[in-house]
Amino acid sequence: MKNLSLVLNVVLLIAVGVLYVLHFSGGKSGEQEEEKGLLQSSAYSVAYVDSDSVVKNYDFFKKKQEELTAKSEKLQNEYKNRAEGLQREVNDYQRNVNNLTIGQAKALEEDLMKKQQNLRMYQESLSQQLMQDQNKVQAELYEKVSEFLKGYSSKKGLELVVQYTPGSDVLYANDSMNITGDVIKGLNEAYNSEVNSPEEDSTVVSE
């Protein structure tokens, strides 16, 4: 659970790939063939997005991150309270063990061992629950970004959008291909419009 913040910084995938199509016609020199290949590859409309910036500035993801952090802290406190309660029982047993019969001591030991096992299972359950929540947020993030880029690329005539961050496969990209600002702005406008839109009244009024 303490690794929640690291997990939340998982980098979103935004249609990663590079397309290069080279057609060479026979009878031309190597220099002419190379020039033709460059012209054809440059004909593709390509742009890139800094996914780290999107994660840091997308209101949807920031909100979800806050919710997950709050939930994680709540679950940690619940686990801590249970663990402290069990520890108090163990301490009481250790203080009073000499005053117990063998049967009583054995029964208490078995009960404490069972409670310890249940506590471990509870901890695993909490971890799985948080992981599922994190995966759900990541899936929603990918879906929202992908859907936005489909519409954005259609309007701008883009054929390919790649992820460009330190450690990615893209080693260089011209700043003129950077659409990160537009993507963040568009995503936030769509999200805020969704959040602030009034809910439709589904109540049917009988005449």
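Next protein, fold it too.
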Amino acid sequence: MDFISEIKVPESGYQYEIEASEEEIEELQDLLTVTQAHDSDERNLLTFRHFDDDFADHDRREYQEGLSEVFQAIYDLGTPEAKQAIEEIHLNE
């Protein structure tokens, strides 16, 4: 197991300590990248689709699901302190 001192969740300001193998680190990085890319997807920024309530609701749900997966992965790999911090802000539910 490798020890990562900090994992920063994009644009959240949160940092957590985790213990993970190289493969687990890559999987977490992939989750972070996909979630961050979805949030800044040009198709979402340069169109008027965000005025479509159905599209906007679907887009928000999709982003929230990605973010939830990120926090669950961090929780699963986290140190006891990281797990406690995530539990305190109810991000592992």
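About the second fold: Residues 2-88 form one domain.
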